[in-house]
């Protein structure tokens, strides 16, 4: 058996958890591998599962119901939760555990480096929205509404509080420019607030990072991990997707404008104001400070590349967007 330790380094917890699953499963466990926090691959003699833990049972139940509804309404490019051969509902040391179908990954992982992948990811997201728009009304009492402006304002304020620390690494002139982009963006978003509340609504994914697109063994692209779903206009997911792919497009507005799913929004001032917001810079600096991972050379190099390495390309992008709004 593969008894790789937990990525968080808690060998004791890993051993206890494995022992618990062994006591619950009627099938012999032959492999147990951590993927990320609270997510494990569990392989028995007959089946392979992804096991995921939730602190709140209702969250697990929501995920089970949501993925089942997705499949029932015609979106098949994701996993389902399944009922494994266990003695009782899995609960261990404050965590409720759900079992998902295992999607065997392709040898070549999905990334945003190629235009083909970026377009395919956008098309899959569009399909997801088309399906969830048909049943979002059923989930309005279960899923929160998306509040992008409030979320980004809070992220920006945390970044401002972290500035005294960040100034040890980044020249003040760069930081001043980045802060000015954010202020301009948030002011424009506030002035056009109605756009971010305008129906029709869909259920939004909320975390369209590359690792939540999985190419399976047969080459089909799948969408996974719905922990951050919310209800709102699909433009909010598209904004996040654009922010994720722009670094791989040299911050080219013209390349972004070729994606037909975005074209209807590029004449909207609110969308353009939001495109200019440096959400990724704030997210990663806040995270690296919160988790105290600035001593991790790889992570620190990534956040510095995002902030300084791409600064001038991003500035050109910002100036172009600002001119379009003006």
Summarize this structure briefly.
InterPro entries: Kinase-like_dom_sf. The chain has 326 residues and is α+β, with helices and mostly antiparallel strands.
Anisotropy-based shape: globular
Strand content range: 5-15%
Give the second-level CATH assignment, the architecture of the largest domain. Alpha-Beta Complex
* Helical content (DSSP H or I, runs of 4+): 40-55%
- Please identify the structural class as seen in this structure: alpha+beta
Overview of this protein structure:
The chain has 11 helices and 10 strands. With 326 residues, the protein is an alpha+beta fold. The protein folds into 2 domains: 91 residues, Phosphorylase Kinase, domain 1 (2-Layer Sandwich); 211 residues, Aminoglycoside phosphotransferase (APH), C-terminal lobe (Aminoglycoside 3'-phosphotransferase, Chain: A, domain 2). Strands 1, 2, 3, 4, 5 and 6 form a 6-stranded antiparallel sheet that branches. It has a two-stranded antiparallel ribbon with strand order 7-10. Helix 4 packs across helix 9, helix 5 runs antiparallel to helix 8 and helix 8 packs antiparallel against helix 11.
């Amino acid at each position: 058996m593969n008894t790789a330790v937990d990525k968080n380094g808690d060998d004791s917890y890993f051993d206890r958890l494995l022992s618990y699953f062994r006591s619950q499963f009627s099938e012999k466990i032959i492999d147990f591998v951590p993927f990320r926090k609270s997510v494990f691959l569990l392989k028995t003699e007959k089946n392979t599962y992804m096991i995921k833990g939730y602190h709140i049972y209702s969250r697990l139940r929501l995920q089970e119901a949501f993925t089942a509804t997705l499949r029932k309404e015609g979106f098949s490019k994701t996993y389902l939760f399944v009922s494994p051969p266990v003695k009782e509902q899995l609960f261990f040391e404050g965590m409720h555990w759900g079992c998902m179908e295992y999607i065997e990954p392709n040898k070549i992982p999905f990334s945003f480096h190629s235009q083909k992948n970026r377009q395919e990811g956008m098309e899959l997201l569009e399909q997801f929205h088309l399906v969830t728009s048909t049943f979002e009304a059923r989930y309005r009492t279960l899923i929160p509404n998306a509040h992008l402006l409030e979320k980004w304002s809070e992220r920006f304020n945390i970044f401002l509080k972290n500035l005294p620390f960040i100034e040890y690494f980044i020249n003040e002139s760069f930081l001043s420019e980045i802060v000015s982009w954010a202020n301009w963006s948030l002011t424009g978003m506030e002035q056009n607030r109605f756009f971010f509340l305008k129906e029709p609504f869909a259920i939004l994914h909320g975390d369209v990072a590359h690792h939540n697109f999985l190419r399976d063994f047969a080459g089909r692209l799948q969408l996974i991990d719905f922990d951050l779903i919310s209800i709102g206009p699909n433009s909010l997911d598209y904004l996040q997707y654009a922010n994720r792919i722009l670094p791989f497009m040299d911050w080219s507005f013209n390349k972004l404008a070729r994606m037909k799913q975005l074209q209807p929004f590029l004449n909207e001032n609110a969308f353009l104001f939001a495109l200019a917001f440096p959400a990724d810079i704030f997210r990663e600096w806040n995270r690296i400070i919160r988790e105290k991972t600035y001593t991790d050379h790889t992570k620190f190099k990534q956040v510095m590349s995002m902030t300084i390495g791409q600064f001038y390309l991003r500035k050109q992008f910002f100036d172009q967007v600002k001119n379009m709004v003006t």
